Amino acid sequence: MIDKLAFIKLQDKKILAARSKGRDIYYIPGGKREPGETDSEALVREIKEELTLKLDPASVRFYGEFRAQAHGQPEGIMVNMRCYTASGNGEMVPAAEIEEVVWLSWSDREKVSDVARLVLDDLKMKGLLE
């Protein structure tokens, strides 16, 4: 099981997504915890590393947890993704391994990983995504 944290940022009923260098799909920005980190600490660190955006730790709110087959992994390797919303400041710039950031609508769901599709479906069902 791959344990991941993800940052859900919506704008104009679209969701922020990122693509790593050399990858063919988009995913919801975030990453894995380092030993001893809380979800909030890891999310703040990962988003600063990947997008240069500084999240306000006090604003981090749990959105939901989603599980699916991990992209690019052998059948049966699952990813469990705990999703959070948060407010932040600073200019959002792709950094570290991130090559591109985009805003996606529900109609773009074929461009994202299986677990991200579950998130997009949930957002669409709640009327938060176009």
TrEMBL record:
Cofactors: Mg(2+)
InterPro entries on file: NUDIX_hydrolase-like_dom_sf, NUDIX_hydrolase_CS, NUDIX_hydrolase_dom
Source domain of life: Bacteria
Keywords of the record: Hydrolase
Nudix hydrolase domain residues: 1-130
Stored SUPFAM superfamilies: Nudix
PROSITE patterns per record: NUDIX (PS51462), NUDIX_BOX (PS00893)
Name of a matching Pfam family: NUDIX
Name of this protein: NUDIX domain-containing protein
Organism this protein belongs to: Dyadobacter flavalbus
